[in-house]
Amino acid sequence: MSSPTPTKVTIIGAGGHLGRHILTSLIAGPNFQVSIVTRQHSANCNSVNFPPHIPIHRIPSDTYDETESQLISILTGQDIVISAIATRAVGQQKTIIDAAIKAGVKLFIPSEFGHDTRNQRAAELLPEFLCQTKRDIVQYLQSKEDAGLKWTAFVTGPIFEMAIFHYLGFDVGTKNASILNDGTHRWSATTFSTVALAVKNALLIPETANRYLFIESFNVSQKDILAVLEGLTKKLWNAIFQDAEEEKRLALEKLSKRDYGAIPMLMRYVTCTEGYGGDYMRYEEGANKLLSLPEESLADVLAIMVGE
Question: What pLDDT score does 307 carry?
Answer without folding.
Answer: 82
